[in-house]
Amino acid sequence: MKKYEFTGETKQVGLFGNITLKRIRATMEFGIIKIGDLGGWIEKEENLSHKGDAWVYGDAEVYGDAEVWGDAWVYGDAKVWGNAKVCGNAKVWGNAEVWGNAKVRGDAEVWGNAKVRGDAEVFSISHVLVIGPIGSRNDFTTFFRDKDSEITVKCGCFLGKIDKFLEKVCETHDDSKYAIVYRTAAEIAKQQIDLSEEKQ
Questions:
Q1: Long-range pairs for 150-156: beta carbons < 8 A, 24 or more residues apart
Q2: Among 3, 70, 84, 137, fewest CB within 10 Å belongs to which?
Q3: Please, which residues bridge with residue 158 across strands?
Q4: pLDDT tens digit string along 98-155?
Q5: What is the secondary structure of 126-155 as a DSSP string?
Q6: How far is CA 77 from the centre of its chain?
Q7: Residue 70 pLDDT > 60
Q8: What is the CATH number assigned to the segment(s) 1-123?
């Protein structure tokens, strides 16, 4: 039996407004969800499994080839798209964005203004750190464990390994206040993000 249906309510998203998302409604009870509870927005049934307690809540959006399954939750204003996978007991919420080939799994939580993308593999809360607003843009900077068990940084339009991030900071900001703040954030990320844990 399917655990949700489309309500008929739609909205357009995407860079050119060319993707149609559909609101979902629960057709059975599971987890904390009751029959008739409204969910968030998905593009197609392949985005949200009918098995397990996985659910998309509120104004959250899941589209493209992204998949949410297991007991994972995507809620708030979170967005998951591309080939991203959110599974296990993972939670993505707030204004967080997960895209590309990123995987959020296990008991991992991605929230706030975090942006996890590319080949990220976050499966523990200790695999991601969001700091901000900081720097010259007064924006949030996200540090996360990638598939190579190294730290990747998303800061403004920059996405790359932490050593390349520090080189770019030096080139752009020399020894200014902003450079000091970005370097300090990188040092905190090196101490905070767990790179030794085995994949689940």
A1: 150/195, 151/189, 151/190, 151/193, 151/195, 152/118, 152/119, 152/120, 153/186, 153/189, 154/115, 154/116, 154/117, 155/182
A2: 137
A3: 155
A4: 998 888 988 888 888 888 877 777 877 788 899 989 988 888 999 988 888 899 999 9
A5: GGEEEEEEETTTTEEEEEEEBTTSSEEEEE
A6: 11
A7: yes
A8: 2.160.10
